[in-house]
Design goal:
Elements: E1 2-6, E2 15-18, E3 32-37, E4 40-50, E5 64-65, H1 74-86, H2 91-98, E6 111-117, H3 123-132, H4 134-145, E7 150-151, H5 162-171, E8 175-181, H6 202-216, E9 221-227, H7 233-246, E10 250-254, H8 261-272, E11 276-279, H9 285-297, E12 302-305, E13 317-323, H10 341-352, E14 355-360, H11 365-372, E15 377-381, E16 392-397, H12 398-405, H13 414-425, E17 429-433, E18 442-445, E19 462-464, E20 469-471, E21 478-480, E22 494-497, H14 501-511, E23 517-520, H15 528-539, E24 545-548, E25 561-566, H16 580-592, E26 603-608, H17 614-620, H18 624-638, E27 644-653, H19 656-668, E28 677-690, E29 693-703, H20 711-721, H21 727-730, E30 734-739
Parallel strand pairs: 9-14, 9-15, 10-12, 10-13, 11-12, 13-14, 16-26, 17-24, 17-25, 23-24, 25-26
Antiparallel strand pairs: 1-2, 1-4, 3-4, 3-5, 6-7, 6-8, 18-22, 19-20, 20-21, 27-29, 27-30, 28-29
This protein binds zinc ion (2 copies).
One zinc ion binds near residues 488 and 489.
Amino acid sequence: MFAEVAFPIRSFQTFTYSIPAKHILSINVGTRVSVPFRNKVIQGIVVNIKKNNSYLGSIKRIIEPVDNVQVITHPLWELINWVSKYYITPIGKVASSVVPKSLSSNYTPQIKNYVRARKKVDLEKVSKLKHTAPKQYLVFKIISKKNKTFKVSSFKKVVSNPLQICISLKEKGLIKLIKKTKPLDFNQSVFEPIFKNIVFNKEQKLVIDRIIISLKKYNFYSFLLHGVTGSGKTEIYIEAVRYCLSQKRNAIILLPEISLTPQIAGRFRAVFGDIVAIWHSKLKVAQRSWTWGKICTGDFKIVIGARSAIFSPLKNVGLIIVDEEQESSFYQDAKEPRYHARDVALMRGSFEKSTVIVASATPSLESFYNSQQKKIEYLRLPKRFGNAKYPKVHIVDMLLNQEETGNFDQVISGLLQDKIEEKLKKNEQIILIQNRRGFSPIVKCKDCGALVMCNQCKIALTYHKNKNRLVCHFCSFSISNDMLICQDCSKSNLIYSGTGTQKVEQLIRDTFPKSKICRLDMDTSKSNLGLTSILKSFSNQEFDILIGTQMVAKGLDFPNATLVGIINADLGLYLPDFRATERVFQLIYQASGRSGRSTKEGEVVIQTYSPNNIVIKNAKNLNIAKFYKTELLEREELNYPPYSWLAKVEFAGPNRLRLFSLIEKFKHNLKGVYTGLDILGPAPCFLEKLKNNYRFQLVFKSKKRFDPNGVYLHRFVNENFKNYNNKKLLGRNKINIYFDPISLI
Ligand SMILES: [Zn+2]
Ligand SMILES: [Zn+2]
């Protein structure tokens, strides 16, 4: 028997190996195997089994399967195939993100050895040791001196092979050897169980009934759950999962941000106990391996996690929930496979015959449109949970504010300052959002006006005051502020302007010196510990004010937070991307949802330079219906999703001219152009140079009127770009393909 094996490489090629007789039963399609490959042993995945082999050269043998249990079930294998085809990615690459090399279902926890002296020992034996085995004697003396347990590894200072020596001492009956498995600490990633007493209202009961009816059918079905912020979606999830478990099926819950997992996992732990697993990239390798092993064996029945949790090897999946489905973090765009976890969730649901719920307070235009087209059932929770009211929203016109105060770099308006003071007096909490980290995102030369840029990226450097360095947020290049001179005129008169989270923090500290302030952005949340402890402390009201980027805008539930301030609502509004306005609307709407979630009334202050912008206005009135109406009209006019299929092909390379001529050549040779296809570009990417590579893109739009299922566009991109790994053709340049890209910048 022979197996075709795929590897995580940029090529669609597979390799043939023979299957040793003793492994014939345990090696199937989808089995991970270790095989010899160019003088190394590596992992691959079996994509096909065949009786005969047409290849005439010498054939190597598979060494053995990697896992003891079946990891990739049939539906999961179908999913891997779908992802590979749909996102035009070699199957070996997809498989290796489903079953990463670092993870094994045969995980055994680390074992630590300890020793302790025995109470009664044969003294004669001991004195003999002195001459026959002086090293054993030495170690024994240390152990017997104290009535305590020693780590075996602690004797490394004394002898080179402590374990061997301790084993010999044990065999002589002089000491006790104790093995302990190192406990895994998950406390850093999970809140304490959070108990709530729930009484459902009429709308919630209706929603739960619809979901249960679907679960009872054991077939694929999907819902868009549109629930206003604070409408109790988590309670609905819990009820749905409870029913799914009662059918002896399992559930996956996807969350857009790692920062949201501890709180929601806490709620689930309180209800379901130890069968809840947490899955995201910030877990340590040991935690990941342990969790993954227990998912494989079925000890965990609920997996809660970020994007990659959609690939978890959970068996018999009855329910998949995608919370805040509109979030762009569900799209993995930095590496292959480039996929949208929400769309993958819907596909997994169809292979597993499960119920899929995509939920949001601000559904994406795609999902909203699909619900109008009856492709997905629309469920609505129009009321806030309990007696919580909608927050009162104030808009501050920052231009007018500047004219009135004469202060042109004012960051916190008078109104926002008054509101903060008012809430502090009442011992209520405040959340301030500035969607940019660092201190000053713009550093300019006073003499010639040149911006200080990263040489590798063509991006303005951001000043970080605590480190006194300028940092590139794309390639993490940094330079000391003291050494900085203008790259154009070599003078060192620099102006620091623009506002990042660090600057907001300092201003607030200066204005309210007695208040307790914490900040949450990529800089303070680098470790999982930092993130969870900040959120925990704010939740326990150890802080009055939480300052952060969009990380703090969504999903979190802080009942005592009654004021949300958006420092600059315009950030992103004028980006050259078809989703720019959708993003700004969502940010404002979601952020407003953090305010006044329980009995206390909430307020929101939005600072803007464009108070008459239709997006800001609709967001202010929390008028989501009107927003969808205007935005959908615009998308239809410009032929953007949801009215078209979109693919972006990005070219990157170190030499601008050569790259451009390559892309021209590709464009010139395009085959199979059809009616309804728009070709845009080549144009430089919005970030034209990153990490010393220039970047250009071709964009393809395929009208749904002519291409209802996107089949034409797939065929077109496949035919023209599938060989994107061809080194001869590309040289040092690279091509990346994005299907349904989340943005065009
Ligand atoms: Zn200058
Ligand atoms: Zn850079």
